[in-house]
Design goal:
Layout lengths: L1 E2 L5 E2 L5 H11 L12 H4 L10 E5 L6 H14 L2 E4 L6 H16 L5 E4 L1 H6 L7 E5 L9 E5 L4 H11 L3 H15 L3
Helix pairs in contact: 3-4, 6-7
């Protein structure tokens, strides 16, 4: 719920699908990213609401030096990198994402999503922030969040050890073991 300027509480649920339709049209000319994946494909919705998953929230102020290992870890753990909007314009965003994905992961780049609604849903006010979801919304039992300069692996360790949500602790431990324990 959001509060309008008139003090009324209003539901705000813009469609991520609508945002992705806009992205598909706006980015149709960028389909050839060089490694078989368009910017739209790499920024597609990561799944329906309520599906367990992880997000790494970043902004254009995060340096490529920090984004490359975050993208590599996100790809390994099945997380999606989320940005609040375009970095400059469509072409600047496309080029930067392509450069980061190619550097971090070659042909199997990380998933990216432009989704300001996720920033609002999980009350992300600083980046990088890491969110692990196990429920359909933004209720206290649906997710855990940690903010700070760390790797995805360290965020998963934090969730596994410190989350107050038992389902998040289990998911974090399983995801960490699957993605990072063999290092």
């Amino acid at each position: 719920m959001a509060t309008s300027s008139f003090g009324k509480r209003t539901a705000v649920r813009p469609s991520t699908r609508l945002c992705n339709v806009f992205l598909a049209g706006a980015l149709a000319s960028t389909a050839g990213m060089g490694h078989g994946q368009s910017l739209f494909e790499s920024m597609r919705d990561s799944g329906p609401a309520g599906q367990a998953g992880g997000y790494v929230f970043v902004s254009e102020q995060v340096s490529d030096t920090a984004l490359i290992p975050l993208a590599r870890d996100a790809q390994r753990a099945g997380f999606t990198l989320v940005v609040n909007g375009f970095w400059g314009d469509v072409n600047a965003t496309r080029h930067r994402v392509a450069r980061i994905n190619e550097t971090c992961c070659g042909q199997n780049g990380a998933r990216w999503q432009i989704n300001p609604m996720l920033f609002q849903r999980y009350r992300v006010t600083a980046v990088p922030s890491f969110v692990l979801t196990v429920g359909p919304g933004n209720g206290p039992g649906d997710f855990s969040k940690v903010t700070g300069e760390m790797s995805v692996a360290n965020a998963l360790k934090f969730f596994a050890q410190q989350s107050k949500v038992p389902a998040v602790r289990r998911l974090a431990a399983t995801t960490y073991t699957h993605a990072f324990a063999a290092q």
